[in-house]
Amino acid sequence: MNVFIAIVITGIGTYLMRGGFILLLAQRQFPPLALRTLVYVSPAVMGALVMSMLTTPEGHIQVGLPEFAGLATAATLATTTRNHILTLTGGLLIFWLFLWLA
Amino acid sequence: MSQRQHYIKRGIFGAIPLFIPAIPFALAFGIAVDASGIAPLLGWSSTPLIFGGAAQITLLSLLGEGASVAAAVTAALIVGARHLLYSVTMAPYFRHQPEWFRWVGPYVLIDQVFVVAMTFEERNDPDAFRYFFLSAGFAFWFLWMSFTGIGLFVGPIVPDAWQLSFAVPILFIGLLATGVDSWHKIAVAAVAAGVTALLATLPNRSGLLVGAIVGILLGFLIERFRR
After folding, report:
1. Contact A81/B at CB under 8 A
2. Highest-pLDDT range among B31-35, B45-49, B93-97, B123-127
3. Mean pLDDT over residues B59-65, rounded?
4. Chain B residues in contact with A52 (beta carbon < 8 A)
5. Which one of B102, B148, B165, B166 makes the best mutation probe of the A interface by having the most chain A beta carbons within 10 Å?
6. Which residues from A are below 8 Å from B190, CB to CB?
7. What is the mean pLDDT of residues B149-172?
8. CB contact (8 A) between residue B69 and residue A53
9. Residue B186 confidence (pLDDT)
10. What are the tens digits of pLDDT across the range B178-213?
11. What residues contact residue B131 under an 8 Å CB cut-off, 6+ apart?
12. Residues B176, B188, A17, B104: is their CA dihedral positive or negative?
């Protein structure tokens, strides 16, 4: 039940974030400083999220050579090609290669 | 062929190539549901109710790890906070539209729909924009419904040794890397990651929230004192 409540609240919240400005503020001016700050939401969240996936609840960072090689390959491919398919395949293949070698 | 059919077709065909990278994501979703111990159908209900892969995976994995509802929901909403930016950016194109479209459109405003809608040449023509946006949006919706369903069955039978769930941090680092186009953003991402690592022992993974907020504050300060 708790899980379903969490899904419903997240669903409503997600919809409001997508629709909020479209529904309410479409006719109004938005403070430029706030708009410029919103640009940093995505890098901050993604940076924090990747790090939280690589750490254990005990505070250890779980990054061996395969993880590091996979992430570095993915970051390089994403920056140079901006192609999500290539980024994912390349990152996973290098990760698996190092896992297999280890 | 009518103009209307023409734009609907373009919307659908614009959506398909961008959906391919979402297929491993749908498998990762299946793995996350399986690992969380949440009943498959209950986990899948997040697909029509939330319709956002990163938020769904974050929410269900955190709940599976024993996080409280409040912490898991907050984390999932912070992960989806970039949609505020899409909403602001898309608002002008919804101005001269029927009221119902302003309510229905946001439901399918996911990353890829934002990208195709912003690169659609005739987005200033309200009718063309509406047909294109809705057909691209609901093409993604239909594909994500199907593939997260398939992911529930296929994800868990992928051998553990493959560690396919590592596809998730790889995808996120890819999204991060394509999004950072200035050293300011790199600094913000690095500070957010650093604070998160330092606070990894906080309960309910709340270090992630503090890390993200500290990063955004740094971004605010950069913009406030620039030039």
Report:
1. no
2. B45-49
3. 90
4. 196, 200, 205, 207-208, 211
5. B166
6. 47
7. 83
8. no
9. 95
10. 878 899 999 999 999 999 999 988 876 678 888 988
11. B4, B7, B8, B11
12. negative
Q: Does A18 touch chain B (CB under 8 A)?
A: yes
Whether the CB-CB separation of B74 and B208 falls below 8 Å is answered with: no
**Contacts with B153 (C-beta within 8 Å, 6 or more apart), sequence order:** B30
Q: Is B96 helix (H, G, I), strand (E, B) or coil?
A: coil
**Matching residue, tokens 């938005």:** A30
- Would you call B106 and A44 a contact, using CB atoms and an 8 Å cutoff? no
The partner residue sitting opposite A44, judged by closest CB among B38, B172, B188, is B188
ipTM over 0.90: no
Partner residue opposite B197 with nearest CB, options A17, A25, A51: A51
* A62-93 b/e (C-beta count within 10 Å ≥ 16 → b): eeeebbebbbebbbebbeeeeebebbbbbbbe
Interface test with A, best of B148, B173, B201 (most A CBs within 10 A): B173
Report pLDDT for B175.
Answer: 78
Give pLDDT tens digits for A3-15. Answer: 999 999 999 999 9
